[in-house]
Fold:
Amino acid sequence: MTVRQMTKRNYEDMPISDADRDYVRGLVIHEDSGLLAFNKPSGLPVQTRNPDDRTLDRLMAAFAKSNGKRPRLVHRLDAQTSGVIVAGKTQPAAAAMSAAFAERLVSKTYLAIATGSPFPPGETEFSMPLTRHIARPGLELMRAARPGDQNSQAAVTRWQVLASAGGVHLLSVEPQTGRMHQIRVHLSIEGRPILGDPYYGGAATVKGEPVPRLMLHAASLDLPHPTAGGRIVLKAPLPADFLAVLSAAGLDLPADLALAAS
Structure:
């Protein structure tokens, strides 16, 4: 089967191993009648592009019902971003959550470790339209939109500093729009790229210690519950590699985050 021939139905029908079933079940941080929430590790892609891909989307087969119906992921995270991601357990639940994301009824909070000059006090709201561009064959990135760009998209990101030490900053970040790589490119445009970001100028070391990956973690989602009504807040604890980089940078977690990470 070629990549071109592989349809969504083709890869959904492909079996997964018992080890992968155990693996993805170990990522679950919440499950109820309407949704599944996962703490996705860095390095696990969400979308399936090739027949041999090991992705969170393909691993949804571990939760398939006897009729073959499986949960549907309703949003995305970059492969190197860790943290909370949700799937609808039924088609109506997935549709309701997809609509909530589209209508901006979901509040998303990320934690990022960035470098650069000190940030101004308080919360910053950064607005800069973005557009896609081909950085090299096979690599599509984002950049600030320029006059005359045909496909620019409005993009707004809010952030505030939780801790700083020697030009390294722990940030709480809330994207107000959902553009590809939005947090990464906005911080890069500001001259404060995220550590470990190979595409937007992030340093590969901090205080002489290697940074293993992009230091961006989807810490929480606050969204309307698709079946029970009301809202639900889903939180993903910080992974060990993120905590290790914080320690190497000499940054202390605020007390509430330290408790959640323990």
